[in-house]
Amino acid sequence: MTVQKRIWDLLVLGIVIFAAAFATAPWFAFRALKAAAQYEDVQAISELVDFPAVRGSLTAELNDKTPAAAAPAEPPSLWRDPLGVFKRAIAPIAPPEPKVDRYLTIQGLSALTRGYAPGAAPPVPPRPATAMDKAKAAVAGPHAMIAYWDPNRVRISVKRPGQPARTTVFTFRRDKLFTWRLVHIRLPVDER
Known about the structure:
The chain is 43% helix and 17% strand. It is built from six helices and four strands, in the order H-H-H-H-H-H-E-E-E-E. Helix 1 (3-38) crosses helix 2 and helix 1 crosses helix 5.
C-alpha cells in the first residue's frame, strides 16, 4: 500500500466515525438524561434540560385541556349572595399549584424517561449483578425509539410498558456540534 492510500483510508474512516458520532449523539443525550434522573444527578440534569423551554411547552400543553364549553362561575353578587361576597373577600388569595412542577422534578423526569406518568411509575428495579442478568435487562423492553431525526432536532419516543398506545415524546435540540438539550416533552393524549 502506498502512503496516499493509507491517508485516504484514514480520512474515510475519520469521516465515518464523525458521522456515526454525530448521528447517535442525541440517543446518548437521552440515555444520559435517563441515568441522571435515575441517580438524582442534579448537575447533569441541569446541563441536559433547557428548563424554561420545557416548562413553557408543558404549560401550554397542559393548559390546552380546558374545555371551551365550561364557563367560569359568575362571582357572587352583593344583592343575591351577600355572604358569598364576604367569603370571597376574606378567602386567601393563593395561586393554584402549577401542573408542570411534578413533571420537572427528578422523580418526574425519571418516570417520564421510563414511559410512566409522574407519581405512577413503579420503583426502579435494582441493578443486575451478573453478566447474564445485565444481558436480560438490556434485551427486555420497551426501548426508546428515534421518532424523528434532523441535524438540529431529534424526537425520541418512549412507550409505556404494558400500554404501547401511550407514548411520551422527548424533543432534543442541538446546541453545539455534539451537545443536545431537552426542549420539549409531549405527553400521551389522555394525560394532557
